[in-house]
Amino acid sequence: MVSTYNWENMKSVPVKSISIVLPTYNEKKNIEILVPEISEYLAKSRADYEIIIVDDNSPDGTSETAMELSKKNRKIRLVKNTEKKGIGFALRKGIESAKKEIILTMDADCSIKPREIGLLLAEIEKGNDFVVGSKYLIGAVYEKGNFPLFAKAIISEAGNRYISIVSGVPIRDFSLNFRAFRREVAESTKPDDNKNFFLVQQVIQAHKKGFSIKDVPVSFLERKYGESKTKIWGQSFRFFWGCLAESFLK
């Protein structure tokens, strides 16, 4: 399936300053590819940027690779957790460390190509406060792979529809870690979950604070190396009750 977007137009997207936050756990091989690609993309756009790699105490040498990358490019920084805490904790640390006007978070598994960054930034420049990438909108590309991944995708889409209905936030994908938001959003929201539910909390809290939220179709590919850390069955209970609590009790 081929995306309908004209990627050449993304090169001219106006950007003031942006912090890219990459949470990592056992992503050594992936960041060797992804981080230089992000740097090249942002350098071409002449953006004032920084890349913050937040490593969750990976045993595979991810932090060492991140340190080597930072020595080659001073715009790259490493934040290392002393113990494994989870993606939510890593995202919170990275967002707190961010220094630029726009903050963008994305996974480090090469499932999202750097050229997709322009899609989110274009919507920010139109005046939106919070822009979320979506695997489920018309125009999106979603590589589901083998049967277990296909079943996981079906469960994920159903869960995201449930969250949208309960929370009243009119977007299709709450769980994809590919999103851009203004610094004011980061300062006004306080998601405290240390796992994947952090992503849901962030959107619901931004909505309740009155920030404008927009979702855009993106191309979500199978990871380049390694295994997914998302445990869909283990998260289902947390997402179900957590969404109710976040929407009505806070």
Supply the key terms.
42% helix; Spore Coat Polysaccharide Biosynthesis Protein SpsA, Chain A; disordered N terminus; 18% strand; 250 residues; 8 helices; globular; alpha/beta; single chain
Report on this model:
The protein has 250 residues and is an alpha/beta fold. It has one domain: Spore Coat Polysaccharide Biosynthesis Protein SpsA, Chain A (Alpha-Beta Complex), CATH 3.90.550. Helix content is 42%, strand content 18%. The chain has eight helices and nine strands. The protein has a seven-stranded mixed β-sheet, sandwiched between helices. A two-stranded parallel sheet has the order 6-9. Helix 7 runs parallel beside helix 8. The longest helix is centred in the middle third of the chain and has 21 residues. The N terminus is likely disordered.
Query: SS-based structural class?
Result: alpha/beta
- If you average the pLDDT, what whole number results? 88
Supply the number of helical segments: 8
Q: What is the name of the CATH superfamily?
A: Spore Coat Polysaccharide Biosynthesis Protein SpsA, Chain A
Rg, rounded, reads 17 Å
Q: Major beta sheet, specifics?
A: 7 strands, mixed
Please provide the ordered H/E string of secondary-structure elements: EHEHEHEHEEHEHHEEH
The CATH architecture comes to Alpha-Beta Complex
How are the strands of the biggest sheet laid out side by side?
3-2-1-4-7-5-8
CATH topology term: Spore Coat Polysaccharide Biosynthesis Protein SpsA, Chain A
Low-confidence stretches: 1-13
Distance between the termini: 41 Å
User: Strand-residue fraction?
Assistant: 15-25%
